[in-house]
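Good day; I would like, with your permission, to put a structural problem before you. What I wish to show you is a protein chain and, alongside it, a tokenised description of its three-dimensional fold. I would ask you to consider whether the tokens describe a fold that such a sequence might reasonably adopt. You will find the record immediately after this paragraph:
***
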Amino acid sequence: MNLSEQNAHVNRQVVAGTMCDRSSEPSATSSISLFAFPAECNFSVTRNNRNAIVNQVHAGCWNNSSSKDTRWLVLTDAAKYVATHRLDLSTCHPDFVTLSFYKIFGYPTGLGALVMRKSAMSYLKKLYHGGGTVQSILAGRNYVVPRGMDNSNDVSSRFVDGTQSFLSILALRHGIHQVEKLGMANISAHTEALRALLVDRLAGLQHWNGRPICVVYGNDSGRSNAEQQGPNVACNFLRSDASYVGYSEVHKLAEIHNIHLRTGCFCTPGACQHYLGLSELDLMLNIAVGHVCGDDVDVVHGLPTGAVRLSLGYT
């Protein structure tokens, strides 16, 4: 079951008010499992029902669990979502949240954050340590005490691998100031309006024979579900005979006109397969002809291997 189907299943359970059948709560010796999901799909930009997913998984209703005696922790990948939307953790309670400052501000690269509930910290057993991250250490025996082990106000220091990227961290204040100045609500409204307009315009494009020029991937058709969609558009373009224009061709033509696009599967192979309607046999045939991630093989046997993503922002 892919994430879209699982999310729909969870939504149906919540709407129907049903409870999962769990005969007992996890014990103190229960195994620990992690369920990770994106707050916003990086391919279709569909925003998942975060509260429903987190609550159902915490309640032990994850259908793919191989063991009933399992304690589930939940990680929400909010990197895409928080770029243009406020994440309210007072109403949604995952154990871990990951985000990327690059996706919010465009700078600095390689810097993100892991936000975790204090109750979940004990499950993370970090073995590696780097310079400046230990409280005490002995050279003659296997003895090391990481920083933050005896100070609840400095628990994050135990997860640092050596010298922090302090210059990049200093740059964050300017990005945060810019977002506060504009207001995240204004950023959300602006980008959602741009996406709705773009989807409407793309949907209206037709060839001389009435066939559509563009197919948009996702679960909406425009403005009515703007709050459930992120500010990107994943699509493919079609010729007048309904055959696909390869995304590499679109990318190269756009570059000529100084338009930057991202093409391919956007590091989301599951969603890419789902929305393009590709079977595992199709994927294996793509591999057999030499297709790999990041290449220019964009159409195989008449079917696309990826898509074009149009990204919208506030600058």
